[in-house]
Amino acid sequence: MKITRKEVDHAARLARLALTEEEAGQTTEQLDKILEYVAQLSELDTKDVEPTSHVIPVSNVMRDDIARPSLPREEALANAPDADGEFFRVPKIIE
Amino acid sequence: MSGLTHLTAHALSDLLRKKEVKAVEILDAAFSRIRAVDPAIRAFLTLMEETARKQAASADERIARGQAGPLTGIPVALKDNLCTRGTRTTCASRILGNFVPPYDATVVSALDKAGAVFVGKTNLDEFAMGSSTENSAFQITRNPWDTERIPGGSSGGSAAAVSADMCAVALGSDTGGSIRQPAACCGIVGLKPTYGRVSRYGLVAFASSLDQIGPLAKDVRDAALILDAISGKDPADSTSADIPVPSHAAALTGDVRGLRIGIPKEYFISGMDPEVEKAVRDAVDVLRRLGADIREVSLPYTPYAVAVYYILATSEASSNLARYDGVKYAYRAGRPSDLLDMYMKSRAEGFGAEVKRRIMLGTYALSAGYYDAYYRKGQQVRTLIKQDFDRAFENVDVIATPTAPTPAFKVGEKTADPLQMYLSDIFTISVNLAGIPGISLPCGFSSGNLPIGLQLLSKAFDEPTLLRAAHAYEQSTEWHKAKPPCAKEGAGP
């Protein structure tokens, strides 16, 4: 086994995904099969190989610090599942 | 005027400029075609008729003023992961089912400025995760060549819409083959540009180091015209390349004499469909007869590409999709007991099975204790795959391969086995990992009358050479002129 049910439950919590009992079982089986396939990478010696995170070597792309108009509040709130006209509304965070 | 819908964008543009037809007539024809054909194909999630009418009217005014460009008045479909201001953009996901973007993707504004007419938003695998368009939360799109079969994916709606003549051209996105594989399945042209050639601003992110927007078209010239319109540096996407954009349409000279074309032996694997292999080898013979210099090349790390992709793409996806928390936009589950419960339930109810599977795989691969074994290892093998191409392109200008190992498979055939589904991208994935451009174009048919795709690849930012080779092949064959059963003359408007 490459992955256990306990590890799936842990990853689901990290990913903020509520999985049903059935989904968690099925996910364990499917991820195990995929990780089994992925394990072929361990055949390769990559000791001195640099990792590629991005094919274009860009970093710290800067622009001039010029004030620009931002999204009007009405438009920013238009897609909110819950808003009071001024703010996004969420369940109580601090007990 | 009838007989408009089967025309390419450049043919329509010629008619428009000669004043033989109006943009509003082209649009009428497109919508009658959509109404006649789409109930069986189901390529569109949202039609943009109101927007399109305004765009077509202003295109006609522009043409009357003599200010038309090559895309003015041309009906275009947009994959529904491209943000359109004021028009629902769902990503074929329940979680974005009601999302109306407050801005346009850069490619969308570029086409709008060029005078294009947006007919609608096309279906896809949810969040572009899939190879069959069966992972859409809303509907299954059918292949116009055989409605029992998938159109490919994830840009299956865009590919089917172009193939069935419901629009002249379409935009898609390609993270591991999502433009090229559906183009092959539907018998059209699909181009994934070099990473960084086209701005990703306003493309709903899946895997940011791999995603790229590109055209699906009826021929190579149309693909080149779209690329000309959408390429270039965009301040809103820091990964867009600040490299001058040549005219891709001007590169289509028809001349491939002396062009060095490499055939990678690793792409002609045992067990591949013999009809696909024959069609691709015949295509290479055509290029040889046109004067190309055909050579064997080796890309030895090819067999590892799918494994690398499913670590890196899922890792990036797990991070990108963390934003769907049900707070500022997108779906929120009803009556959560607290904040954590709101996140957990909103995401559980909002995402489909494949998206959850990939978020889980990516989260696991990035989690403490596994990072080196999976994510770092994947990035290192990505380097080896990229170096394979760097070495090959020292000796050749273009590489030719099949686009997909088989023609379009049947609806439901691979849904039970995610790994089998992933392997249908085996020939397209390396290209995204290396960041180079690739194009798929029709090169024949199976005995069951299903289209087969030829894939051509080139060095980064060498789309002019890539398109020149593709165009020369296309123009010496008839494959791109074939129409699916539902699009033959006399079948509908």
Describe it:
The complex is a heterodimer of chains A (95) and B (493). Chain A has 95 residues and is mainly alpha-helical. Chain A has a domain at 5-43: Histone, subunit A (Orthogonal Bundle). Chain A has helices at residues 5-14, 21-38, 73-77. Chain A is flat and about 55 Å long. The mean pLDDT of chain A is 93. By secondary structure, chain B is α/β, with parallel strands linked by helices. Chain B has a domain at 9-258 and 468-487: Alpha-Beta Complex (Amidase signature (AS) enzymes), CATH 3.90.1300.10. In chain B, strands 1-3-2-4-6-5-10-11-9-7-8 form an eleven-stranded mixed beta sheet, with helices on both faces. In chain B, α4 links the parallel β2 and β3 (117-122). In chain B, α9 (305-320) crosses α12 (372-392). Classes of the chains: A mainly alpha (95), B alpha/beta (493). Chains A and B meet through α1 and α2 of A and α9, α10, α11, α12 and α13 of B.
Summarize the model shown.
The complex is a heterodimer of chains A (about 100) and B (about 500). Chain A is mostly helical and about 100 residues long. Chain A is built from three helices and no strands.
SSE topology:
The complex is a heterodimer of chains A (95) and B (493).
Chain A: H1 5-14, H2 21-38, H3 73-77
Chain B: H1 9-17, H2 23-41, E1 44-47, H3 49-64, E2 75-79, H4 106-113, E3 117-122, H5 156-163, E4 169-174, H6 180-186, E5 189-192, E6 212-217, H7 220-230, E7 260-264, H8 274-289, E8 293-297, H9 305-320, H10 339-350, H11 353-366, H12 372-392, E9 398-402, H13 418-422, H14 429-434, E10 438-445, E11 451-458, H15 463-475
Largest sheet of chain B: 11 strands, mixed
**In sequence order, what are the helices and strands of chain B, one letter per element?**
HHEHEHEHEHEEHEHEHHHHEHHEEH
Rg of chain A over CA atoms, rounded to whole Å, is 23 Å
Q: Quick one: overall form of chain B?
A: globular
Radius of gyration of chain B: 21 Å
